Amino acid sequence: MKGKISRPRSRSKKPGWQQDIAGERIDILMKLAGKEFKGHPERSNRYVELARKIGMRYNVRIPKASRNFCKKCYKFIVPGKNSVVRSSARTRSMETKCLECGEVTRMPYAIEKRKQIKHEKKNMKQGASK
Ligand SMILES: [Zn+2]
Prior knowledge:
The protein has three helices and three strands. The chain has helices at residues 16-36, 41-58, 111-128; strands at 83-88, 93-98, 104-108. The protein has a three-stranded antiparallel sheet with strand order 1-2-3, with no helix packed on it. Zinc ion binds at residues 70, 72-73, 75, 98, 100-101, 103. The site of zinc ion has 8 residues, from loops.
């Protein structure tokens, strides 16, 4: 018996490779947003917008690790600049307050673990590419 695993791919409209590319583009855009923030914060907001659009179009989620924008006003936020980050022992989470609109986002500490997994996956990908 051959272990042929058929995954219900039909759920997502776009083929996997397109989603991969979309994911990479989102990654790049979020990095650019971080780079441009110092001199041109409005550009950062534009990059976030583009990344979100790509995500919506290809049904790709922006990785939480690079979600450096406010989920309410979608502005790119940087701790110490236009956002305040606090760790809350009570809720076991990081609290990010967007100073643009005042929204508070909580992220459970467990996210740090996911970040590591993402990093490992990235390394694996690099090794696998020819
Ligand atoms: Zn906001």
